[in-house]
Amino acid sequence: MLEECRWVYNQALAVRRNAWKEQGKSLSYYYTCKLLPQWKKERPSLNIVYSQVLQDVLRRVDEAFKGFFRRVKNSEKPGYPRFKGKGRYRSITYPQFGFGITDERKLHLAKVGDVKIKLHRPVEGKIKQVTIRRYPTEKWFACFACEVSLEPLPPSQKAIGIDVGISCFATLSNGERIQNPNFFQKEEKALAKAQRRLSKCEKGTSEFRKAKRVVQRVHERIRNKRDDFLHKLSLRLVQNFGIICLEGLNVKGMLKNHHLAKAISDASWHRFFHFVLYKAERAGRVCVLVPPRNTSKTCSRCGTVQEMTLSERVFNCFCCGLFLDRDLNAAVNILRVGLHSLGKSPRSSPLYRGEQSRNLCYNNKDRTSQYFETRYLVPLLHPIYWSRGFSRI
């Protein structure tokens, strides 16, 4: 079935590309949908695939072209849609109908039949969409998009600022430090060993496929450990704090630093921010993204900005004499700026010896005015919320 969907994807991509090259005409999603009956006559094996699944394949092609034109318009790297090679099409989607869960814990799929699943938790709400995905290690998962009622957590006035790093994954403004688990670094030797074995095998042989499966399993193990750590950490933060202030880091730009790219990718800051944002939205919490410029170089007590190199891990203010860990100082500044953007003032903290925090603009308004151009996520209190659950087939 996946190979038939791959054929439809490549066929639709070729039709749209040739129409633009030969006629200068851009075809729409609805035009390619009208070609499906003709393709089914030419290729009878397409009849084994549910009709809405094939329509979703065409929708993916349309989204790929929309993304391409959007990137061209924004002067980004275009990335023209590519043809899918054998084994490269890994998922199908039932967007509206053709699926259901029976009492025997079986998933019914149109044109497929009843498939046994390991339902690790009950499905909440009404199932609106099902996506079946095959992972590189030949494991199959069903992803359910459900319509459920939003149940926000009890209100909380607790606020926290979070500064992420490499040696220490996160430093909280209350002084707590969360160590970096370094999942990729711990599995790097096993991955290198598996890759060496793969490089010695001839392509196309059974030995090559087995060695490739070992490499894929190592990558899957790293991803699972990392996701488990990030999910648990983000859930704990959302449950304990009502206001969460994060750095609005440009992680994609930071990866251009080849000395730190591997460590930044291993830490997976962007994924952590994504988990915190969507969990905070569902729980009715407020999450603030603070511009990261000079958060580590600004004194959290008096607001003085001083130049520091990355090797200096302790902040020693030459103005007020504050001697504090660099990451903790940045976390306090992130908290203060985030609360200021919400119209709140930070409470007194032991870091200031019982003194009230001063405004960051105390010394130089022009230099720190950019801090207050923050973006924050207002909690959505609509009665309907989209959630996703995963089940192992």
What does this structure look like?
- By secondary structure, the chain is an alpha+beta fold.
- The protein contains 11 helices and 15 strands.
- Among the domains are: 1-89; 91-149, no CATH class.
- The strands form 4 sheets. It has a 6-stranded mixed beta sheet.
- It is globular, with a radius of gyration of 26 Å.
- Mean pLDDT is 81; it is low at 348-393.
Which series of helices and strands comes N to C? HHHHEEEEEEEEEHHEHHHEEEHHEE
Low-confidence stretches: 348-393
Strand content: 15-25%
**What is the averaged pLDDT score?**
81
Structural class: alpha+beta
Over all CA atoms, what is the radius of gyration? 26 Å
| Count of DSSP strands | 15
Count of helical stretches: 11
* Cross-sheet strand order for the largest sheet: 9-8-7-10-11-14
- General shape: globular
Helix content: 25-40%
> How far is the N terminus from the C terminus?
16 Å
Q: How would a crystallographer describe the biggest sheet?
A: 6 strands, mixed
